[in-house]
Amino acid sequence: MTDPQVALLMLGIFISLVFLGFPIAFTLMALGIGFGYYAYFDASRMWRAFNRLGEEADGWTSASTWVEGFFNNRIFDLFINQTYTVMSNEVLTAIPLFLFMGYIVERANIVDRLFTTLNIASKNIPGSMGVAALVTCALFATATGIVGAVVTLMGLLALPAMLKSRYDHAFASGIICADGTLGILIPPSIMLIVYAASSGVSIVRLYAAALLPGLTLVGLYLVYIIGRAILQPHVAPRPAPGEVPDVPGGKLFLMLLTSFFPLAVLILAVLGSILFGLATPTEAASIGALGGMVLAVIYRAMTFERLRESVYLTVRTTAMVCWLFVGSYTFSAVFSYLGGEQVIADFVGSLDLTPFQFLILAQLIIFLLGWPLEWSEIIIIFVPIFLPLLRIFDIDPLFFGVLVALNLQTSFLTPPMAMSAYYLKGIAPPQVRLTQIFAGSLPYVGMVFVCMALMYLFPQIVFALPEFVYGAR
Fold first, then answer.
1. Is the separation of the CB atoms in 95 and 193 below 8 Å?
2. Helix or strand run (H / E) with residue 141
3. Distance (Å, rounded) from C-alpha 135 to C-alpha 402?
4. DSSP 45
5. Which of 91, 154, 330, 362 could form a disulfide bond with 32, CB atoms 3.0-4.6 angstroms apart?
6. Which residues, at least 6 apart from 335, have a Cβ–Cβ distance to it below 8 Å?
7. Which residues contact 128 (CB under 8 A, 6 or more apart)?
8. How far apart are CA 52 and CA 45, in angstroms?
9. What is the mean pLDDT of the chain?
10. Which residue, among 424, 456, 434, 332, has the nearest Cα to 385 in the 3D structure?
11. Are 384 and 119 in contact (CB under 8 A)?
């Protein structure tokens, strides 16, 4: 077999093992080291010391020298260097801090107050409880960036309230599932940090580029919820008299001041300090983590047990992301050395695609990968395969990254995986069926595609804010 054929075999084995359920990070490392041993095999270098041993050398010396030669393969040097590169990556330092902020905010008892207040404030709007759930999810998801936490907490809080108000099961479930995924798109998003580290794109420009598309998607969701409530009132009945309390304007403002504004100010402080160059993402994440702890103290929700649990969850998730990077970097280096990337580039070039056709093909592949894989695996492992091809088609990696971030919203909503649906089903009342959750989520998949189409037709949705704040590249 030629080296490029070995590279394609390596990729095929990896995909097969992923579908068989092997741990992805360690599969990447094992395949990278295994095939890298073949790729970098140099007998004269590895066993030079062994071959110089004289006949008088005893068995122990011969065996230890042979073992030392066996491990004298450059793949082990590569693996160590890639591990050090990941651990010293300043962009990735923001991940544990943003995660910690999210876990602390999740435990600060803010969300229940926020949903109650917004439900009262929006009671005269069609689908008022759905609108309140959307805004709550958007704020909470932006603050945490942890889809499972948002969907689970909102499922415990908002879903029973909507069902009690006679909301259609599918309609109510779809709102929570779709809105809970917004945190991986709207800055400060952990997914965008991972993409920036993989692609070399400036994280501050990426945050600025993703903000308007994220708000556009929220707007589409809002139009759908209100429009559906107007056209089909039975799916989202208006509150019955006395079901939502009448609160005087002054008291309502005080409720907003103690629930909506603290979380909004925290998010704006973190995001604003990044976008306007007042702090690096890591420094802003530190501010956010401290702000989350302050909010938890103010709301009397800070306990040692909650702090310990937040630290543990932060370390566990950060370790998973870092090992994925180590495995991906090692795998990609060996794959490229064997000529795999060039084979893919030549194949795609031979298709004679236009930039639009390439974007459609790439996004279709990422959409399909979202069925069995999580966003972190797609961003770290598969997106780097597309990045070298962007130069061929003259596509800005900033634009491509925002498209991918939008596309990956669907990975949480589409069967067979649809993790948001399974998170919600795990805590939903028994009468809410999984098929209803899937049915309620599918319209939002369509709105993601509409938002992607708007981005392609009007690219300034992506480029306007980065160019306004930082100037044209």
1. yes
2. helix 128-144
3. 22
4. H
5. 330
6. 7, 10, 11, 341
7. 119, 122, 238, 239, 244
8. 12
9. 84
10. 332
11. no
Question: How confident is the model over 103-154, as pLDDT tens digits?
Answer: 888 777 777 788 888 888 888 888 888 898 888 888 887 777 777 778 888 8
367 vs 449: CA distance, rounded Å: 11
Long-range (24+ apart) CB contacts under 8 A made by 384-393 are 384/198, 384/199, 384/328, 384/332, 385/341, 385/344, 386/362, 387/198, 387/199, 388/341, 388/345, 389/344, 389/345, 389/348, 389/358, 389/362, 392/345, 392/348, 392/349, 393/353, 393/354, 393/355, 393/358, 393/359
**Hey, CA dihedral for 262, 264, 267, 269, is it positive or negative?**
negative
Non-local (6+) Cβ contacts of 151 within 8 A are 176, 177, 180, 181, 420, 423, 424
Token readout for 22 is: 């092997």
Helix, strand, coil in percent for the chain, rounding step 5? 80, 0, 20
Terminal Cα-to-Cα distance of the chain (whole angstroms): 44
pTM for this one?
0.84
Structure tokens at 367: 């959409």
Instruction: Kindly indicate the confidence band of residue 61, based on its pLDDT and cuts at 50, 70 and 90.
Output: low
E strands within 121-166?
none
> Per residue in 341-355, pLDDT tens?
888 888 887 888 888
Cα 179 to chain centroid distance, Å, stands at: 14
* Interatomic CA distance for residues 460 and 19, integer angstroms: 39
